């Protein structure tokens, strides 16, 4: 009987920790127009908030691209290594109240992310209200 209890307890605790960690990791971004894979973004937690950094650009021709249209401190920085998701906070089963940068347009949008299963991430960028935006589906890199 004790073995069953400890097994159940272990599975329950492992499940809690895996749910909390699922949004973190590496994700492949997909171009809306072409359907081609664009980059790998690493999502991580820092000081209780979620951030995402471009760790690899997949198109060799764009490997050395810079954020020329960006404002402020990001202007002219290489896109590879750029933090594009900033300051998301957990809100139930999604993460909200942060921003996402589109380095090709140099625009900053409000952002919400939510897991769709364990290997898909819905990333929504919008201006003003969430209805006025678009959602991309990113795929977990294994």
From TrEMBL:
Residues 1-21 form the signal peptide. It holds the Pfam family DUF2147. InterPro entries: DUF2147. It comes from the Bacteria. Coiled coil: none annotated. Transmembrane segments: none annotated. Residues 25-140 form the DUF2147 domain. Keywords: Signal. This is DUF2147 domain-containing protein.
């Amino acid at each position: 009987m004790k073995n069953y209890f400890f097994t159940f307890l272990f599975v329950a605790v492992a499940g809690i920790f895996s749910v909390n960690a699922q949004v973190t990791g590496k994700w492949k971004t997909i171009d809306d127009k072409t359907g081609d894979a664009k980059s790998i973004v690493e999502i991580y937690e820092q000081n209780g908030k979620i951030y995402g950094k471009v760790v690899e650009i997949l198109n060799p021709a764009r490997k050395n691209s810079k954020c020329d249209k960006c404002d402020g401190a990001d202007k002219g920085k290489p896109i590879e290594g750029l933090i594009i998701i900033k300051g998301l906070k957990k809100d139930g089963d999604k993460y909200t109240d942060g921003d996402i940068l589109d380095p090709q347009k140099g625009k900053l949008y409000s952002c919400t992310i939510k897991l769709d299963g364990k290997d898909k991430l819905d990333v929504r960028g919008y201006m003003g209200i969430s209805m006025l935006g678009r959602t991309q589906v990113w795929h977990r890199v294994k």
